[in-house]
Amino acid sequence: MAQITIKGVAKSFGAFKALHSIDLCIADQEFMVLLGASGCGKTTLLRIIAGLETPTEGEVWIGDRRVDHLPPRSRGIAMVFQNYAVFPHLTVFENIAFGLRMKKLPQSEITNRVQRAAELMHIEQLLRRYSGQLSGGQRQRVAVARALAMEPDVILMDEPLSNLDALLRLEMRAELKGVLAGSKTTTIYVTHDQVEAMSLADRISVMSGGRIVQADSPVEVYRNPAARFVGSFIGNPPMNFLPAKSVGSGQWQVAGMTFAGPDTAGSAIEFAIRPEDLAVAAGGFAAVTRVVEPLGAHTLVTAEVGGKPFRAVLDSDIAVRPGDALSLLPKPDRIRWFDPDTTLAIQGNSQ
Question: 237: cis peptide before it, omega within 30°?
């Protein structure tokens, strides 16, 4: 069993605090993605789990073993790096076999494991080539195969697809998800790419400023962000936010419209809606189109509502030009509300 439990882990580099008391439980065989912008602490947390960094405070457990005092080789993990870290002077076979030889396994078992891992990553025809002769995508497959061949309890991946082109990333995402689900390992995957996170993860831990802001399923993180930051970071384009003023018990005025919302003591909160949850229909926000971006299946419109930028994702059949007036009507069940002081979601905020 490879459940990972992180208890109160903090990390300081001199006066800079990279992680603030992280608590996180990752279930056996779960695919957990650590998502956030550069500098949020996601790679530092991964390196602490790997044993490449020592926590300033806290504990790391894998299964029923506390491992934060153990060297990386004793933790039952394998790691895939952003820069592949394959050896150009070795063949593909020897690259995949490298960790197995370090463990002094019998040659027959090494051969079987290398062949099996290579077949999973569709590189069995490349085993006799030197890795310096391979493309970036092929080298990344070698790195993943090397990790799989170790049959680890946990695989840690640090932005493994970031050096690949867009089409190859799409192909590798699909393969990784299938292969890792079949391997029955626990996976922790670091990325700043929300599309990767949404498509791969069983759960996403959204990080900011050395803290986990929300850890939940991709759908829940997208539909019900726990904080304003999550709504503004997840989604392309991100959520729209507008100020709301109280006009009575549970009634809120937003850019000339009145909505039923949370019954809270505050006189001002924030209204939020995703751009795809707007329709061109009577009775909506009075908007003036500023920028129109045709994107094939849909059109991204940047408009102005209440003096603020406001984006809408519209069907490509809707004809709209810069300067046009639009009425943008939000779907009532997709409206979310946030506290402007704490920036946290107000519970029970959908109507």
Answer: yes
Q: What residues does 157 pair with on adjacent strands? A: 80, 189
Superfamily, domain 4-229? P-loop containing nucleotide triphosphate hydrolases (3.40.50.300)
Alpha-carbon gap, residue 172 to 178, rounded angstroms: 10
Q: Is the dihedral of CA 12, 14, 15, 18 positive or negative?
A: negative
What architecture does CATH give domain 237-338? Beta Barrel (2.40)
pLDDT given for residue 350 in this prediction? 46
Q: Tell me if the pTM is above 0.85.
A: yes
Our CA angle for 86, 87, 93, nearest 5°, is 85
List where CATH 3.40.50.300 sits in the chain: 4-229
User: Using one digit for the tens of pLDDT, what is the confidence trace for 78-114?
Assistant: 999 877 788 888 999 999 999 999 889 999 999 999 9
CA–CA gap between residue 224 and residue 226 (Å, rounded): 6
